[in-house]
Write a structure and sequence with these properties.
With 473 residues, the protein is an all-alpha fold. Helix content is 52%, strand content 2%. The structure holds 2-acetamido-2-deoxy-beta-D-glucopyranose (5 copies).
Length: 473
């Protein structure tokens, strides 16, 4: 009797002590928590095991839980982990994942990140999220893919070029539709996420390459979002509109990642421009930041108001990923627009990180994080890979304050100059066979400091192919 009570007590004690605790005044304490959460994120990733598909969080619904695009968010999150926490443990896995999901068809050159498995059902936003991960790899100087494959910046440019050709001026005065293929459900919608991701990609390419084409498209996309009412005069950002004769049917859901992506892109534009252009972006950015903070961070921690605050709508398997995207976008904006840094840190980044960590006391290991940051202990205690990714992004965001944690973002002048300039002429046709240019690979290393990890990548890829062939036989 005594013994079992004692062991119960001990079990309870060890579970309680497993819960994550962070001293936010201490960089090493924040980083230690980031390491724990990062390894809990990667615990869920099986794509590098035999018979699984590299890059993905399992099969898409209905067979599995999460859609294709969420893989891109996973790799963006892990790239940020390297960037802010300076830990390269996962870089070679990230590199393998991005390479694999560019696909193996010949159009991976001029139509990147639309592998055949998904091309019939992909949205412009899905494809752009993969491009944004490649963009990050370029900015963070992850060594380029091996010779014979497009470089990171070429991948980002290729997606941009293919999306420019999908810009649809025939309806609603412009904008990207949600879906790429006319027969897909959702082709009759123009959603903010597709256009905001395209905007952010353009802004980042503008900064990286200093090519005016990108600046022009970023301006144009921002203006279109505003003209069409997806961004209102108070800088509120709405979800989507239905393409019909007058394009006035705007769905007024407000999703944090739409605002986050626009905020991040505007911060890149602010950072990249000068004089009166910069003043314009400063004003736009300041307004959008104020509205975003008031809308989603009114109590401090980020709340996904469209579903978290709703009795009728639960956060679905896409919506549970938005918080992480938003936290990463805000952290990025805070570094690119120092005038906003204190405000973002005080009103959003820090309170979200602190609240997120307080939910990290669940799951089998007693330290997995929950979804409802604003009400720890209350509500559902659901754990899973999106919750871990969100929490990791929140924790990393609190490192923005620490200059030592911040690697400067590359441009094509600072590195990879031999890879950066030559944008390919993008093909807009899925299945297009045209292939132009050749890649002149720089390094094969994957760990961010030039050491070669190419061999591991190819061994892992080979194993997966072998397993797939075996399964067919
Ligand atoms: C990097 O992360 C790994 C896995 O989370 C951890 O084992 C390792 O100690 C970390 N390295 C440093 C230098 O913190
Ligand atoms: C496409 O699906 C097949 C079968 O599941 C898989 O082996 C292959 O790796 C997938 N390709 C990509 C790019 O995910
Ligand atoms: C600028 O970018 C556009 C779009 O990717 C490309 O077509 C053009 O060739 C680039 N210009 C230069 C000078 O690299
Ligand atoms: C945003 O709000 C801050 C105060 O919280 C204010 O100082 C600033 O002027 C506002 N910015 C804009 C562009 O409205
Ligand atoms: C642009 O961003 C860098 C960080 O990447 C920052 O040091 C610099 O001050 C920013 N420029 C402006 C004009 O805010």
């Amino acid at each position: 009797m005594y013994r079992s009570t004692l062991s119960l007590l001990l079990a309870g004690a060890s579970l309680a002590s497993a819960a994550l605790q962070v001293d936010f005044g201490s960089i090493s304490s924040i980083k230690a928590a980031a390491h724990d959460v990062a390894s809990d994120v990667m615990f869920y990733y099986k794509g590098n095991q035999p018979g699984e598909t590299p890059g993905l969080l399992g099969r898409p619904p209905p067979a599995g839980e999460y859609y294709w695009w969420t893989g891109a968010i996973l790799w963006s999150t892990m790239l940020d982990y390297w960037h802010y926490a300076n830990n390269k443990t996962y870089n070679s896995i990230v590199r393998e994942a991005l390479l694999w999901q560019n696909g193996h068809e010949s159009n991976r050159w001029n139509l990147p990140f639309l592998p055949l498995n998904v091309s019939a059902q992909a949205g412009n936003d899905d494809q752009a999220f993969w491009a944004l991960a490649a963009m990050q790899a370029a900015e963070f100087r992850i060594p380029d893919p091996p010779k014979g494959e497009p470089g990171w910046i070429e991948l980002a440019q290729g997606v941009f070029n293919s999306q420019v050709q999908r810009w649809d001026s025939k309806t609603c005065g412009g904008g990207l539709r949600w879906m790429i293929v006319p027969t897909s459900k959702g082709y009759n919608l123009k959603n903010t996420a597709s256009n905001a991701a395209f905007f952010t990609l353009a802004a980042r390419l503008a900064r990286y390459t200093d090519n005016q084409t990108y600046t022009g498209w970023a301006e144009k996309t921002w203006t279109w979002l505003s003209d069409v009412g997806l961004m209102d005069k108070d800088s509120r950002i709405f979800d989507l509109l239905v393409v019909d004769q007058d394009c006035t049917k705007v769905n007024k859901f407000q999703l944090s990642y739409d605002a986050g992506l626009l905020l991040q892109g505007a911060a890149y534009m602010y950072n990249h421009t000068t004089d009166s252009n910069q003043a314009t972006w400063r004003t736009r950015l300041g307004r959008l930041a104020n509205t975003t903070l008031a809308t989603f961070f009114s109590d401090g921690p980020l709340v996904e108001i469209a579903c978290e605050g709703s009795k009728s709508i639960t956060c679905n398997s896409d919506m549970v990923f938005y918080k992480g995207i938003t936290m990463r976008a805000l952290a990025s904006a805070a570094t690119l627009a120092p005038f906003l840094r204190d405000q973002l840190m005080r009103e959003a980044l820090r309170p979200s990180a602190e609240a997120a960590i307080k939910t990290c006391d669940g799951g089998v290991n007693g330290r997995e994080c929950g979804f409802r940051w604003a009400e720890p202990g209350a509500g559902e205690k659901k754990t899973g890979v999106p919750m871990e990714m969100n929490a990791l992004s929140a924790v990393l965001g609190s490192l923005v304050d620490d200059d030592r944690a911040y690697h400067p973002l590359a441009t094509n002048e600072s590195e990879n100059a031999n890879r950066g300039g030559g944008a390919r002429s993008g093909g807009s046709q899925i299945g297009s066979e045209s292939q132009t240019g050749t890649g002149s690979g720089a390094g094969d290393g994957a760990d961010g400091d030039g050491k070669s990890a190419g061999a591991t990548t190819h061994v892992a890829v080979g194993l997966v192919v072998a397993a797939f062939v075996a399964a067919l036989a």
